[in-house]
Amino acid sequence: MSAQSTTAHPVSIPVSRTFPTGFFWGVATSAYQIEGAWNADGKGPSIWDTYAHTPGKIRDGSNGNVANDHYHRYKEDVSLMHSIGAKAYRFSISWPRIFPAGTGQPNSRGLDFYSRLTDELLANGVEPFATLYHWDLPQTLQDKGGWQSRDTTKAFGDYAGYVAEKLSDRVRHFFTINEFHSFVDMGYRGEEVNVGGGTVTIELAPGLKLASAQLNQVRHHSVLAHGLAVQAIRAKGKTGTQCGPAENINIYVPLIESPEHIKAAEAATREANASYLTVMLEGKYTDAYLKETGRDAPKFTGDDLKIIGSPVDFVGINVYRPMAYTLASDQPPGWHEVPFAKSHPKMFSSWHTLGPEALYWAPTFVQSLWNAKAIYITENGCAADDVLDADGNVYDTDRIMFLRNNLTQLWRATADGVPVNGYFEWSLMDNFEWTAGYGNRFGIVYVDFKTQKRTPKMSAAWFRETVQPNAVV
Ligand code: PNW
Q1: Cα 374 to ligand 1 centre (Å)
Q2: Is the pTM of this model over 0.85?
C-alpha cells in the first residue's frame, strides 16, 4: 500500500468513549513524597521523618528530606500540570507544617505555603483537591501514643477544622484521610499481600507490630478521626465545601461476570471493607466483622458510630489492583476467593497484580452498596522501571498500557451511569515511594533526583490526549 493511499483513507478514531461533561481529570501527589523542606519554616517532625531517618527502613537508604523539592519548586510543578492538560490536582497537607506539635499554636508559615500553592493552581486553571492526612503524623502525637490514642482523633478534627476555615474560600473539596487500610494495617502491624505465586509483606511508619485487639482499636480511631474531621469541616468551612474519605477499597472482582458471581463479589467487597468504608458509609460495623473479631473487636460507643457515619459529599477510592477474584459458592459466606494464577501478570511494584476490571467494579459496587452520590478515583497508576532514552524521551509503554486498560474500564462504569466525577492519576511525577525509596517511579513526569529536572514521559502525552477529547480511545 502506498503512502498516498494511507493519506486518502486515514484511520479514523471514533471519539465515542466520552466521559461525563465537567469530568475532573487530575493528577495526585502527597506532601511527604514530594515536598522536601522537612524542617523548613517552623515545620515539626513527622513519623515519616523519624522512620526514614532510621537506618535499614528504606530500601535505598533514602528519605524525604529533599524529595522533589516541591516546596520550593511548586510554581514550576503547577505549570507542568497545566502543560500536560490536568484540570485538577490532589495534593496533601502536612499536618506538622500547620501544627508542628500536632495541637496548640498553628504555624502561619506552614499554612502560607498551601495558600500560595492554591493561588498558583487557580491561576493556572487547575482545581485544588486537598487531602488532610496522607500518613505524616506529627511525631509529638506519636510520642503520646499516635493513632492508638483516642486524643489523636480529636487533634485531627481540630486541625481539619482549622485548615477548612483558612482555605475553603478557594479549596472546595477536601479528602479527610488517605488510605486508612494502608497506614493502619501496614503501619501498625505490617501486611501480607497475596500476589501470583506468593506473598509480599509491606510495612509503613511507624512500623509497629500490634496484636489484633490493639490494631482494631487503631482502625476504629482512624474512622472516628475521619468523622470528627467531616463535622469540623462542616462547622468551619464555607458553605458548599465538600468532603469525603479517600480509601484504597479492597475490591473483589467477579472472575465471571454473571449475576450470581457479581452478587457474591459485591457481598465479599462489603465485608472486606468492614472496618473502614463500610462502617463510614453505613454507620455500623457488620455483624460478621464483630463476630469474627470477637474479643478483639474495637471498643466503641453508639455516639462514635454516629460520628463515623457522618454524611459525606463523595466517596474517594484509590484503585490499583483487585484484592482477589471471586466466584459464588454455596458454602458460607457465599463466595470463595480464587488465588491469582502463578503466571498472572503484574506491574513493576511487588504487590501490583494487574486487573483493570477493578476500576469498573470498585465504583460500581460503591454505588450499588452505598448509593454514593458522587465518586472520585483518588488514585490509579503504576510504577515502571523507566529509563531516559538517548533521544530524551521516556517510552513507558507499560504505563500507557496500564492506563488505557484501566480507563477503558472506568469509562464502562460511567457509561453504565455510575456517578464518577473525576480521576486522579498517581502520580504527577516520580517521587519518594515510601519503603521502596526512589526506585519505584510512579510519575507520568520523570524526575532526575540529582538535578531536579522534570521530563514528561510518553504517558504524559497520552494523558493530555485523553483529557483533551474527554475520552479514552
Ligand atoms: C498508595 N497495595 O499506596 C498511596 O496512597 C501512595 O502514597 C503511594 O505512593 C501509591 O499508592 C503507590 O504505592 C498503596 O498494596 C500502597 O495495593 C499499597 C498498595 C496500594 C497503594
Answers
A1: 22
A2: yes
